[in-house]
Automatic annotation (TrEMBL):
Gene3D superfamilies cross-referenced by the UniProt entry: Aldolase class I (3.20.20.70), Ribonuclease E inhibitor RraA/RraA-like (3.50.30.40)
Protein name per its UniProtKB record: 3-hexulose-6-phosphate synthase
The keyword Transmembrane is annotated on this UniProt entry: no
Sorted UniProt keywords: Carbohydrate metabolism, Lyase
Record-linked InterPro entries: 3-hexulose-6-phosphate_synth (IPR017553), Aldolase_TIM (IPR013785), Bifunct_HPS/DMK_prd (IPR017120), HPS/KGPDC (IPR041710), OMPdeCOase_dom (IPR001754), RibuloseP-bd_barrel (IPR011060), RraA/RraA-like (IPR005493), RraA/RraA-like_sf (IPR036704)
Designated gene of the protein: ulaD_1
Record SUPFAM superfamilies: Ribulose-phoshate binding barrel, RraA-like
Provenance organism: Methanimicrococcus hacksteinii
Family of the protein in this entry: Belongs to the HPS/KGPDC family. HPS subfamily.
One Gene Ontology term of the molecular function aspect: 3-dehydro-L-gulonate-6-phosphate decarboxylase activity
């Protein structure tokens, strides 16, 4: 039977243990002390997991690169059954790890993460005596859209080693992995960031246990663009800003029609001193999914009002974001059209026609290029450069999931400080 391994990639040991208990209740067979957890809690977390789960396989995700014998020994003596060594490590490290593993009665799993030619390396380590290999796409690489399944399929046809697979697996891809020949399906984020860990582990268990024949045909693969838009619609601007390391938020611009969220591509406009010609001309070259993003630089002369709003509604624009002022506030509000701006004033400027459309602009102190992704909600507006949009979308979804999980923990009696073990993690510099 294919084994399910839950990867405890959190840095708070108490949370890790709670999640492990919930995942075990959902059908996880192997419990992995993830690398960040081991770095945070040391071998104590292995001892603790061993005590709580005497009958489960405990994997120490050491990702050892050097001094294999010593690292295997300490994980083994703490209670691990399986220890990971990086495929990128020198053969000497792998040999030493295998010797130590034999001595202390544990198994070695070689992790192919980021190895340029994983199939060739898998054959080499098999010759060295390794019998457990992990086809693995790391978390940061997953965010760019890389998946382990194709490599898994190729490796399964060529090796007798037991194969584990990891890399952002969900029930759908975990099922595919089982069909492709995986013996151990390793799942982190999908389970540990779920607001119902037990159910999510059970979903993976069910997907893996279904035979290939009884599995529903895989859903048609979405384009990256569709996937991105769906994620941006689901997450908040706060999640996106976190995913961008607190960058991307426009300053001084807020929703003038609260409750309206926008997700779309920027049509940029630069104009000056209330000049509203270029902004309203930009509406005519925009359509569904477009957001007109305007730098006007004057908070006291409006360059957008009720008539521009009506035109934008008729052309089915997604919204408008203005570093500058709007007027006709009552008409804007009645329209329900998403308008984000820095100020509301009654007086307008003149349509002189100065400025440009679809050039790089600065709006709310952020650089915006034509085609960049703009997301606005009641917390504000963020700009996501188009070149990094897929990665940022995927990362913001992880932030969203983690917050949902924390929300559940706080609902169940934890405080935010205790859930995140804040005292331990205060900056000691
Ligand atoms: O070892 C890891 C990262 O290096 C993870 O434990 C592994 O990738 C599983 O987690 P996820 O399902 O989130 O990818």
């Amino acid at each position: 039977m294919v084994q399910i391994q839950v990867a405890l990639d959190v840095v708070e040991p108490d949370r890790a243990v709670r999640i492990a208990e919930e995942a075990a209740a959902g059908g996880a067979d192997w419990i992995e002390a993830g690398t960040p957890l081991i770095k945070s809690a040391g071998m104590d977390i292995i001892r603790r997991l061993r005590k709580i789960f005497p009958d489960k396989i405990i994997l120490a995700d050491m990702k050892t690169m050097d001094v294999g014998a010593a690292e295997v020994e300490m994980a083994a003596k703490s209670g691990a059954d399986v220890v990971t060594i990086l495929a990128a490590a020198d053969d000497a490290v792998i040999r030493q790890s295998l010797l130590s593993a034999k001595k202390y009665g544990v198994r070695i799993m070689v992790d192919l993460i980021s190895f340029p030619d994983p199939l060739a390396r898998a054959k080499e380590v098999e010759v060295l005596g390794v019998d457990l290999i992990n086809v693995h796409v790391g978390i940061d690489a997953q965010m760019t859209g890389v998946s382990p399944i194709e490599t898994l399929k190729k490796l399964a046809a060529e090796t007798d080693m037991e194969i584990a697979v990891a890399g952002g697996l969900t029930p759908e891809t975990a099922g595919e992995a089982a069909d492709a020949g995986a013996d151990i399906v390793i799942v982190g984020s999908y389970i540990i960031n779920s607001d119902n860990v037990t159910q999510s582990a059970a979903d993976i268990r069910k997907a893996v246990d279904l035979s290939a024949k009884s599995r529903a045909p895989a859903a048609e693969k979405k384009s990256k663009e569709t996937e991105m838009i769906e994620i941006f619609k689901k997450v908040s601007t706060s999640n996106i800003s976190d995913a961008m390391h607190r960058k991307g938020a426009m300053q001084g611009i807020s929703s003038k029609n609260p409750g309206k969220k926008i997700v779309g591509r920027a049509v940029t406009v630069r104009s000056f001193g209330g000049d509203w010609a270029k902004p309203v001309e930009a509406i005519d070259i925009s359509g569904p999914g477009d957001i007109v993003v305007i730098y006007n630089g004057d908070r006291d002369i409006a360059m957008w009002g009720g008539l521009a709003t009506l035109t934008a509604v008729n052309r089915k624009l997604e919204g408008v974001v203005i570093d500058g002022a709007v007027r006709d506030f009552d008409e804007v509000q009645k329209s329900d059209f998403p308008v984000f701006a820095s100020n509301v004033v009654p007086n307008a400027g003149d349509p002189k026609g100065l400025g440009e459309i679809n050039v790089e602009i600065i709006c709310g102190n952020q650089t915006v290029n034509p085609g960049d992704y703009i997301i606005g909600d009641d917390s504000g507006v963020v700009v996501v450069p188009k070149e990094r949009a897929y990665e940022i979308a995927r990362r913001s979804e992880e932030v969203w999931k983690r917050e949902k999980r924390l929300f559940e923990e706080i609902k169940n009696g934890k405080t935010l400080a205790s859930a995140l073990e804040l005292l331990k993690w205060e900056n000691k510099k």
